[in-house]
Amino acid sequence: MIYSVWLTGLGLLFVAAERVWPRNPEQRLLRRGILSDLAYIIFNSEYLGIILGLISIELIPILGLQHLQIGLLSKAGFWTQFVAFFLIFDFLQWCIHNLLHRVSWLWQFHKVHHSIKELDWIGNWRFHWFEIVVYRSLLYVPAALFGFRGDVMFWAGIVNTLVGHFAHANMSWHVGWLKYVINSPEMHAWHHNHPDCGPMNRNFALTLSVWDWIFGTAHVPAHDPERLGFEGIENYPEQLPGQFIEPFRDLARR
User: Fold this and answer.
1) Is residue 28 part of a domain?
2) In total, how many domains does the chain have?
3) What is the pTM of this model?
4) Which domain holds residue 67?
């Protein structure tokens, strides 16, 4: 229930912020594809991720894996665990996001997210359900083995949701020197750019942009890309359920 309140509150916050500080004033609130993106909230909000995280904690004793628990931080306080989890979790997400672009069969699923043609906060939820399985299976089970608490994972999920909404938002905010630390609309737009508009496979940040600056994948020109998407986006399904089915079709054609 608490997460429902946060999810609703953050959504309303960014609906208002996009009206007050729009990057593209001509972009409508009820833009093309909005109904499908509303449905993605049901499928893809952090509920499933949080559930998988809590399940991973409970499965450790059930499966008799206690002897594998490192438990380095199991006795640490909330803030120590939160900072450690947040940094480790975010770096691993950056690595996984990188793989989603560079491994061809994973890219077929990640394409769903890049089918966005008009960025706004709700586009943060447009991704194939299989991505949740990939991310959470590679993140939450190790997190449970390290002894991170469930409430730490919960609040990290809230922060990730907040920054994810901001990075995708139709907002004209420029964050100045904070672009070296936190993901932002000016940076993330160039992650979604069409190959006709500039270099691909840049700005893999989900929450912290620092990893892109460290590993040389940052790309933040002073202007926005003229077009979003990928090669062949004109023929890609624009709505559900086609977007859920298309990755499997692409793989079957190989």
Assistant:
1) no
2) 1
3) 0.89
4) 2-23+33-252
